[in-house]
Amino acid sequence: MHACPCGYFSDPTRECRCTGAIIQRYLSKVSGPLLDRIDMHIEVPSVPYKELRGKDTGVSSAEMRDRVEGARAIQQRRGFYNSRIPSRQLRKLCALDEAGERTLEMAVRRMGLSARAHDRILKVARTIADLSASESVIAKHLAEAVQYRSLDRSYWN
After folding, report:
1. pLDDT tens across 13-56, in order?
2. Are residues 67 and 110 in the same domain?
3. Same domain, yes or no: 2 and 38
4. CA distance 123 to 133
5. Does one domain contain both 3 and 77?
6. How confident is residue 156, by pLDDT bands cut at 50, 70 and 90?
7. Does some domain include residue 137?
8. What one-character DSSP code corresponds to residue 10?
9. At what angle are helices 61-78 and 115-131 packed, to 10 degrees?
10. CB atoms within 10 A of CB 63
11. Is residue 89 pLDDT above 60, yes or no?
């Protein structure tokens, strides 16, 4: 979904003419409990023409597929795909060090996250750790997972 009815909120090339009240009304059409059930909600800005036509030297699809297959293999060995980790196993499989605990606590407090959003952030952070072939979930993984909850951020509420 767009961030506002006109679709130009935060677009660097076009001006959004929506007022704060219009944006708030538009976003309030999606309920909080529904958003809680979506693991990742991120802003995807339009890509400038030069970038579309440029020669990108980023990660190839084959390289990305290999990373994803590696992460899925890690999850299979663990016994669960991360999206299916049972609540009773979540704290064990996503154990946090002190810095990770502080990062997650700050996010939950500042963003007013529900218990469901808390658990989903842990699962996404576990996936990020798996993609990095990291045994443990660290603060960096949690911070990235929190960034994928853009619709939970206070400026949307």
Report:
1. 889 999 999 988 888 888 888 888 888 888 887 888 888 888 87
2. yes
3. no
4. 15
5. no
6. very low
7. yes
8. T
9. 120
10. 10
11. yes
